[in-house]
């Protein structure tokens, strides 16, 4: 949530696709407009569908990793769903992977990320015209999946660890759990309120620059305009909401609000799953420790919950 976010497309969509079979014959690199992705194919079956992964906030790469967090969760999920018979596409967000050094953080916009994922979706539909394409969004990526589904009509959407409230509410709740002095917390809440009103704050203390750098303030202002529950209610394609009971960042009350507002979707709560899709104790310190343990497997209930939803389509 606090990592530096990255850039958007700025030119007309000119798609350059580079596909080359990897040594194992299963992973295939893909590229559009300088953004890199990895297609993971089922080895011995006709694909049941194609799933575009949409990562969470910050500079997250195609494996689900970012500075300060090495989980490999998206790589594990892509492999598992490929084993279940689905093609998956995991992408580096703009400014991560091979293109990280070429991006100016000031160029980032929420709308730019949305265009990036729309381009990947178009790529998949053109490459696999006779195969259903699904969207799987994790954390912030769930909102992008929701917004895309309003216009692009995928075969279905899977929202994993999604926010159910606007990001200003989420940020305030997250900050309230941190050991800030009362005056610092009041200042943070005031900055958030100003952003909600589409007003920036200048001369933020250096200690808070990781949260409120100028480029992040602009991004948050865009993000705050979307209520995830209200946006999900506008979606007509089948949806699955998966929430972790041990998620300290986005607790289950978020998924509960989504399903109340958009009851035509399916809802699954995985009691001991945390925000990065691993099984951990309820203690938040233990949950956060898993963010840097790529050897820890995915929660054993996650993939079955997804494949049950997909199989019913």
From TrEMBL:
Residues 1-23 form the signal peptide. Residues 75-275 form the Serine aminopeptidase S33 domain. Keywords: Signal. GO terms for molecular function: carboxylic ester hydrolase activity. The keyword Endoplasmic reticulum does not apply. It holds the Pfam family Hydrolase_4. This is Lysophospholipase. It comes from Morganella morganii.
